[in-house]
Design goal:
By secondary structure, the protein is of the alpha/beta class. Helices cover 34% and strands 23% of the residues. The strands form four sheets. Strands 3-4-5-2-6-7-1-8 form an eight-stranded mixed sheet, with helices on both faces. Strands 9-15-12-11-10-13-14 form a seven-stranded mixed sheet, with helices on both faces.
């Protein structure tokens, strides 16, 4: 009996029984190549790496392609992803159809000759020479994605793999797996936890609670940590990017804004934070239900190297006539908006105004943001964290980075923030 018959000619129900229920959809999407990038993140013990290894092995049997597994540091390959793939082959009961080599590190599917290779990315530029003669290198897996310092490192490697055109209906596709780092500002968290993803990307989050095969000892350790340090438990076992552990805006609601929400709005406020080079300009438009003490993100204009004219043209194209409260540090930019017949003025800043504005926002009943409407506002409000001192202790103010829409929001609600008199 061939490996293909042994594993893949079973009834579909049998294949599904090999997988944890929460990963079966991933397999279906992967098998049909509905996406080209599959991001599997989560906490310890979620079995994400085990399932990726199974999917890679099944794909090597199914398709005339080869696969490559990456780790940031090459010396970790033999005891991590290589062993994980070996385990998957044994789990599927098809080890007789594979040949294992230690130098170079690779696993060959002997019935066809295609293989799984393992490479470190200590220097991303070295990946430009990746090429296999007999079977295209169409599948890839970046294990422990958070080890990579920048997204650019990963993209350099992917471009080296996907530059050639595939034949016979084959498609490039890859897995990215990791436990989310604690910092909300880590690039993988910003990209896959707090931001909108590209249409070609599928994101899946799993925890040990989804894994029916987890040991009793593991469950006991998790529960003990939960009782002792819930924040650490949420990070390690639930895979949450907890940041400093203090949520700046506990009233934040990331959801669709409904018609009922829009009917609640009694006031519209607009704010603008300047930017041009590496700093993005951020125009925000908010609805405010003064009665319910809820604000709703209605629209945004956001981007780098956007001129004042670009901003003005966007606002005019939308027909927005409400006043715009701007960062007062650029009076000439405010004049530029006025030349386009927009009602614009500078925010009245003062000592403690930033902290007071952030507190005012945090004291609202809700801050409602729909990522489909305003993806950049959604991302910044979710990833923002408190600044810390040199010892890592949180300070009573937010970090002064990745906060352009938040600053613009503070400006927008200047007239609604009363502290004796209007303050900013």
């Amino acid at each position: 009996m061939t490996s293909l018959m042994k594993v893949l000619k079973r009834p579909q129900k049998r294949i599904s029984e090999l997988l944890n229920k929460n990963f079966y959809e991933v397999w279906l999407f992967w098998k049909e190549s509905l996406y080209s990038r599959y991001v599997l993140k989560g906490g310890r013990g979620s079995a994400k790496s085990s399932h990726i290894a199974i999917f890679i092995v099944l794909s090597i049997i199914l398709e005339p392609v080869s696969a490559v597994c990456f780790r940031k540091v090459g010396e970790t390959l033999s005891r991590t992803v290589y062993e994980q793939i070996k385990w998957a082959i044994q789990f599927l009961g098809v080890e007789e159809y594979f040949k294992f080599k230690a130098s170079p590190l690779e696993i060959i599917y002997v019935e066809r000759g295609n293989k799984i290779i393992f490479l470190g990315v200590d220097d991303p530029q070295k990946s430009k020479s990746i090429k296999l003669a007999d079977f295209p290198l169409a599948l890839y897996w970046f294990e422990e994605l958070a080890e990579f310092k920048t997204e650019a490192e990963v993209e350099t490697v992917i471009r080296s793999i996907t530059r050639g055109k595939l034949k016979n209906g084959l498609k490039y596709k890859g897995f990215f797996s990791y436990n989310p780092p604690q910092s909300k500002l880590h690039w993988v968290n910003k990209k896959y936890s707090f931001g909108g993803t590209d249409d070609n990307t599928y994101v899946h989050h799993s925890t040990y609670l989804d894994n029916p095969h987890i040991s009793e000892q593991f469950l006991e350790d998790a529960e003990n940590l939960k009782k002792r340090n819930e924040l650490k438990y949420r990070h390690e076992y639930l895979g949450e990017a907890i940041g400093n552990g203090i949520i700046p805006f506990p009233n934040l609601q990331i959801r669709q804004i409904t018609k009922e929400d829009l009917d609640n709005i009694s006031i519209v406020r607009q704010g603008l934070d300047w930017g041009y080079g590496v700093d993005p300009v951020a125009f925000v438009r908010w609805g405010y239900s003064k009665k319910k003490k809820i604000i709703y993100a209605l629209d945004e204009y956001y981007g780098v190297k956007r001129s004042n004219k670009n901003v003005a043209e966007y606002i005019l194209s939308k027909g927005y006539e409400e006043p715009i409260t701007c960062d007062s540090s650029e009076p000439k930019s405010i004049d530029d908006l006025r030349e386009h017949e927009l009602s614009a003025w500078g925010a009245t800043k003062g000592k403690g105004s930033v902290e007071y504005g952030e507190k005012w926002l945090g004291d609202l009943e809700a801050i409602v943001i729909d990522p489909a409407r305003t993806p950049n506002i959604a991302k910044e409000f979710q990833i923002i964290d408190y600044a810390t001192d040199k010892d890592g202790n949180p300070l009573p103010r937010l970090e002064d980075k990745n906060n352009h829409t938040i600053d613009a929001t503070r400006y927008a609600f200047e007239r609604d923030m009363k502290k004796g008199k209007y303050v900013y």
